[in-house]
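From the shared-data thread, chain only:
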Amino acid sequence: MKQINFTMLILFAFISSILYAQESEHSEINWDTWGVPHISGKTDAEVYYGFGWAQMEAHGNLILKGFGKSRGQSAEYWGGEQNLESDLLIRKLAISTRAEEWFEVQTDEMKLNLSSFVAGMNDYCKKYPEKISEELKVVLPIKVTDPLAKIQVSYHLMVGAFAMQPQASQWKNAGSNAWAIAPSKSESGNSLLLIQPHPPWFDDYLFFEAHLKSDDLNIYGVTLIGSPTIAMGFNENLGWGLTFNQADAMDLIEIEIKNNSYLVDGKWKPLEVQTEIIKIKQGDSTVTQTVQIKKTDFGFVIDEKKGRALALRLSGFDRPFFVQQFVEMAKSKNIKDFESAMKMLQLPLQNVIYADKQGEIFYLYNGIIPKRPNGTLKDWSEVIPSSKPGAFVNEYVAYEDLPKIKNPKSGFIANSNNGPWSSTYPFISKPKDYPSYIANDPFENFDYRSRRSIKMILSEPKLSFDEIVKMQSSTYSELADRTVDELVSFAENSNDSLLNQAALVLKGWDRKLDTESIGAVLFTNWYFATRKMDVFVVKFNKEDALNTPNTLSEEAKSMLLNVARQTIEKYNRLDIAWGEVYQINYANKTLKGGLGLSELGSFNAGFYRPISKTKYTLLGGSAFTSVVEFGAKIKAKGILSYGNASQKDSPFKGDQIQLLIDRKLRDIWFYEKDIEKNLYLKEILQF
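Structure, as tokens:
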């Protein structure tokens, strides 16, 4: 009997171990009704497997297209001159090779997580091949190095070298907003965080919203599609947002070149040269082209002409733990943990705005910034002669020397792509003798949107969660406040009947750029007609930075008549609403209205391009917005403006655009009980 009991005990233990293994070695994805996957597993590896699967389910075709591009093989797969140009640059920067090198130096745990992420992607494609476009299957199987190559393209190249993008002039008003509100400025006594990036709404910049939860991780936020880590978001203790800053993350260096050698300090030094073959699809055939990867001490050669070459240096190419840093940020429990993660300095640039449950708020002017002997940020943003002292970079600014703000007396941090010294109020004095190549002078990037941001916060002695939810959607024009009254007075006192009509329209305008805002189009037309003029009589004064410049010049006021005539000529009336002219065309939908304009001082802003003589379409702007309160339980609302999927026939493709138009946020579900109440689909994946 004892023997039987002992045998049964062993059998029970064996069966239990199998059941435990089955229970632990799986990922669970609970898709909520907004298409957000809440991915859980016992280990991080299980969660990353589900994360890869979920991304393919929502964005499979775009991800494969992006991975093909980041391999430098898009011309081989799909042909086309644009793909070839992309491949040439990616090969010249050795992105695929570097991705392999990065993977090899990761910890065993990170290698497992990356491998699991890719396995989830590949397994989804195997199970649902009909969901993937035939022309994109050539990229399969996805390699473990593909996400690391994609990070270099999407972050180091597309963000770090943003100015190099062909569309950069159209996207110059892309930006972001982020607020951290301390308990002293909060009605509830809890810290509050607003995250609102304004990137282009194009493939390489699209976000994917997700919630990842294991025994060691519980992070909610967004990632760039194809990336294995949350870039902005919150856990149960803290959160952070990112805004674009002016950190010197890129150099273009002009060098003298001859016979595969380049001139350094009066001596010729051999280039490091590697030859690769690029395949180019042309119809049913394939041709080849040779490309040489040329590396110098200054950077990678990207162009050559008449004995001169242009070398590109990108910060972060020599720092392979980009993903690891974001994981450490996500797992942080307090400001000490978070700063420890930030000290890794793997992110080439971007401001970091932080708030936590303990009441700490924090700002970091983050960047992998070269140490220079002298000069301003502007000096080092131009093409640099290789002979210039400091052109060769061998040392970077230490974390301790980067601008920071921690727990300011004001009780808030607000950044809208302005510099560190103007990210709270009263403003912070720039330290004496602080190197001007690190950050611009205090008010150089302090535009109307930055002013509007701070004025909204100062409008209330303390802010509530609901007030921030309302404020984040504001398209109110800061520029209008310092111009419209004068324009109305000028037009009312004119003998011209058209100016009298213009006065009525501007006087009745709500000074917003919302769908039904009548007067916004007329005012915007006036702005574009006068932006190269000397518009204000009273110039900017740093002692009154929130309210200067002001007082319109006679020339600026007089331009209103010409603008009124042009507006009548275009639209046959002056009282045309914003949404009749500015629209969103996305996911096979056309909706009137969209976002405000940063140039006019709208907080919730975007940027447009003309699609006809009378209409404009949105190119990008407020993409992900979240408002989070760090109380006893997390309270959060948000929106992913274009929806959380791009796959054909997905119900989540473009499903949140109307929320954006209506200036609303949806609930964010962080706890299991709430997720279950708002469940769209449950998937159990065997890992």
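The chain is about 30% helix and 25% strand.
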